[in-house]
Amino acid sequence: MGATGRSPRFRAHGPAAPNGLSGHLVGFIEALRARGIGVGPAETVDAGKVIAVLDLLDREALREGLACAVLRRPTHRSTFDALFDLWYPRAIGLRSSGKIDTSLPRTDDGEVDMEALRELVAELLTDGSPEAVELTELLTTQMVEELGQYQSTKGPSFSAYQALKDLSPDTLLKKILDGLMGGAQDGGPAPHVDEHRAEIARRTAAARITDFRRMVESETRRRSAEQLGKERVAIHGVPRLAEEVDFLRASDSELTALRRNVTPLARLLASRLAVRRSRSRAGVIDLRRTLRKSMSTGGVPIDLVQRKPKTARPELVVLCDVSGSVAGFSHFTLLLVHALREQFARVRVFAFVDTTDEVTRFFEAGADLGVAMSRMIREADLVSYDGHSDYGNAFGVFAERFGHSLTSRSSLLVLGDGRNNYRDPNSAALARLASVARHTHWLNPEPVGQWGTGDSATDAYREIVSMHECRSAQQLAAVVAGLLPV
Is the pLDDT of residue 18 over 80? Predict the structure, then answer.
């Protein structure tokens, strides 16, 4: 039976009874809102209509129907799915097929045979058929029950990390890859395959391992919710929205989601800028010319005369720390700036570690940002002595070599955490730069509470320029939207 099948256990443990459906749905909507997914009254009404017409025993149809009704952005889907699984679980308690033995393989002394389990998981993931997927899901139930369970002060609890620790799914990649590519039998050499097919197999194998991890994590959340309550698990165990992920603490999967989120974020900001510019085209009232024109009507200002606004787009100069501690933050800010470059008459990018170099050439229109960042680190002159951040020297070098890049039409954007390794902050150099630029703002990826602690020189810099906390894509969008001039 597939994920959308209708078995007696779904009838026993499905969604709430009809008289409780509305309250259950409202709780689900409130959980979505609590995690930052905007669901308005119209979407809530649509979700109610979905529940009224769909077969509630078909979980996947219900999942897709509610997703269509309430989601506005595809990047919110993983958070939606995790919350859906908590409010509309597959079952209560330990799942079993009733027909197929899905118990874990064991050694002669009764312990779980991890090597046999690895072979079984690799075989199922290589198969990839609907039947194999269902068996894999049932197997994860047993794994979480036996390998992921531990005793806490509040009774039995479950851990995805503990369930996967001894299995080490990443070690199965080669076995799955060999199976997908028709690997050798009895240790013989694999038949020759073209590189295109090999790449497809590698991506398929990696995706199936990722899906297997998600199955275990989903099952862990389901069982934990039975012990701790779904509301608590929704707060602590559900994936964050991509735009809420902390730049400095993001995992690889979260960074991938962030990269996908940059382009729609840039489109949104660009549309806001266009609206702001269109509103500013009317200009302000020219009092002198209005009064002069009113002389023909006896001094009564009937016709208002407005000053024509300057239509020139501003220039943007970005000065960013690309040392290891903040490289991820700088990367995503540069992604956003690159996507918004058409909103500016000119964009110049300067990077530094302990000295400064212009890197605009790596970020030309159409350039791949990942390649650009790699080339910048390899080819630009960013390190002059020990490779540790030196904001003071970087500001001094910028003022001396590139100070002419700033004009009264420029907006200077500084990116970095301000951690100067106890060196001279050279505040005077930053003050000279800020006195020339039209606007100067500093985006800091650290929490405000950490500013000025340890080797941070932010207290000195905050006296000169406006500093803004910018730890996530959500904060980055809000800050940049407020800072970009029209």
Answer: no
